[in-house]
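Predict the 3D structure for this chain.
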Amino acid sequence: MSNARWIGRCAQWGAALALAMAGGAALAQPASGFPDKPVRIVVTFTTGGAPDLLARVLSEKLSSSWGQPVVVDNKPGAGGNPGADFVAKAPADGYTIVVGTVGTHSINGALYAKMPYDMVKDFAPITLLATTPNMLVVSPTVPAKNLTEFIALGKKEGKMTFASSGSGTSIHVAGELFKSMTGIDMVHIPYKGRATAIPDVLGGRVTMMFDNMPSSLALVREGKLRALGVTSAQRSAAAPEIPTLAEQGLSGFDAVSWFALFAPANTPKPIIDKWSAEVRRVLKLPDVAKKLADNGLDGVGSTPEELAAYQKTEIAKWAKVVKDSGAKAE
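Done. Predicted structure below.
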């Protein structure tokens, strides 16, 4: 081969290698230009609850830092399954993610006979956002002033009703767990979200509800609802005056709600990592941390790997609770 041909061939190889390296770099870092268009955060419940609050906090901060609109899209109903399924089937490009809950991503798989999505295989974990206790709340017209009196009242009356923001939520399963541990005959009344459930609790049309603390704490402090206990193992720093159910006689009662971001499965890892890092940064901002704490939320922020491990333990935990309580999705 002549020198001229050899030089020409080397030039061709060099150009090909440069293109390959450039392509490889583009594949290795697909998040470099992300996001370059509007982003959607799907909330699987109505406005006014903890998932919605978290999504709107993130929307404000991320829109500012990313220079792109971050839109909150509420898709309530059926324990959050339709909204979660919408994201599971969305393009795996990071532009559509979901605020997953303890229900949509750990309870529902055991509660529903048929699920439209796989809680693990159809999603890529991003970060654990926050946790919060549920509160057992009743109307002030209910004569019981504490848990002991409430249990006695329930056994005397023979039948009570409890509201939830939907079948499969921690609010629902906490009620089923309470029912099985106390022996009170209780009927579950599922709603499409806490916004439609709370008015019936306030009006005394439903006996009680295990509501997320961010949703009901203000109503408790205004005297519109009475809190009989929190469902966490320890008292909440947001309302230390409210005793746990465990310390009032229901030993071992622990039903904490959690909220996390998930993307569709197969979303490129650099995009997942960018989401995770940016959201963890936002959660550490003083004004965000204060807003969450004021609403009874304990901000967390985790790596995708930590969220995956946590979700695994939660799925096992809630599967046992559902089995032991005999709970079913209506």
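The chain has two domains: 37-132+257-325, 133-248.
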